[in-house]
Amino acid sequence: KRYPFKRGIVMIWINLEDKLPTDSDINGWEPWSQEKWEKWKDESERLNKRLQELHDEGNIDERNMLIDANSSHWTKLKPWLEKLSYGKCWFFEARNASSHMDVEHFRPKKEAKGSKVKERDGYWWLSFDYMNYRYAGNVPNRKKGGFFPVRKNSKLATYIDQCEDYEECFLLDPIKNYDISLIAFNEEGLAMPAPKIDSWDRMRVKVTIKRLKLNEHPYIVEERRLIWQQMNKEINKFKLAFDKIKKVNDKTLLKNKISEYIKNIKLMMREDAELSSVAKWCFHFNKDDYIERIVP
Predict the structure, then answer these.
(1) Residues 189, 232: contact at Cβ < 8 Å?
(2) How far apart are CA 29 and CA 224, in angstroms?
(3) Cα–Cα distance between 220 and 94 in angstroms, integer?
(4) pTM score
(5) Which of 34, 83, 125, 189, CA to CA, is 20 to 30 A from 241?
(6) What pairing do the DSSP bridges indicate for beta strands 111-112 and 120-121?
(7) What DSSP string runs through 53-109?
(8) Are 122 and 171 in contact (CB under 8 A)?
């Protein structure tokens, strides 16, 4: 069967750029006051200024110690980051597959390691920048560590030249809409590159899957497989009922059944549903014109 391809349907996207702890429309979140948020940002600015001073003085060890000593600052945002994804790990999209949840720095704080090149200085100036935070489970966070390779000849961000948007990094970023469109799933519960992507993006997906162990955690792979099976079952029941309804006079019972199947399909693809990205991929893999029209 030919795989469909449609960007933006494969994984949930975390809209970090347009969200703040002061927002009142985040499900289950008690918004911060503007005063509290300004106080947090002021402390970030103070810490960042001190990091710059230590860096300019060449006191790299002391600079890194200051980062470690103030982990409680970014931890204050952990409950907010959690609510943005309904408690799901931004990489696994599961709530308990990775055990303890952490605030992950997407660009590593103190050192950055490539796949083949030597270690380089980290993105220390982003240590207290909330846009660098990702809500991650124990497995992807610990496995990633300081690993952050970039493409050969890519621009490299430094404190003097903060060109992060121009870096060509290998790891997929859950706050980037384009990145989440690159990864797909199959009926065995395995993550894989989406069809019709170019060789560079395919490599990025493979590096991300391998480094973050997206296919090596037995629980998450099995859960994905079960979600696929459940979605497949609901779709098949829908199609069977839809075929039957054309052949019977009293359509009431079948119409109620079809409504139930549609509800179940939609529930599995809701943003707050665990592994909704797998359910979406299974849906679009099995869809036909009619079911796509009534379950957009």
Answers:
(1) no
(2) 28
(3) 8
(4) 0.90
(5) 189
(6) antiparallel
(7) HHHHTT-HHHHHHHHHHTHHHHHTTHHHHHHHTTT--TTT--SSTTSSEEEEESS-S
(8) no
